[in-house]
Design a protein that fits this description.
With 104 residues, this protein is of the alpha+beta class. It has one domain. Helices cover 16% and strands 37% of the residues. It contains 2 helices and 6 strands; from the N terminus they run αββββββα. The longest helix has 10 residues. It is globular. 17% of the residues are buried. This is Phosphoribosylpyrophosphate synthetase.
């Protein structure tokens, strides 16, 4: 039986594939934490996404987004979707055009 990978395992897998940049969302933009370059939702392409439910509380959910920007910067973003989480990240990803999501 194959077990489900954790967020950390997926992040490490994609970092090995060159998705090494870390991002955060603030005020409707995504920010590269190293270069401080800012990206609008229409400048982001979702290459893959993985959903995770909390072990002790299934309503605690996170989504790992594997992304590439319009200028070919590759990275990952882990967004928390629990009832008590900050909604900034969720709001940003809701604004990405649907045709920027690759089919998983």
């Amino acid at each position: 039986m194959e077990y489900a990978k954790s967020e950390k395992e997926y992040i490490e897998e994609y970092q090995a594939k060159g998705f090494t940049t870390n991002f955060t969302a603030k005020g409707g933009i995504l920010i590269d934490l190293d270069t401080k370059k800012e990206y609008k939702p229409e400048e982001i392409y979702i290459k893959k996404e993985f959903r995770f439910e909390g072990m002790s509380n299934p309503s605690d959910m996170s989504i790992l987004y594997v992304i590439e920007t319009n200028d070919h910067i590759k990275g990952t973003v882990l967004a928390n979707y629990s009832p008590s989480s900050d909604t900034v990240m969720a709001e940003f990803f809701k604004e990405i055009p649907k045709d920027h999501f690759e089919h998983n």
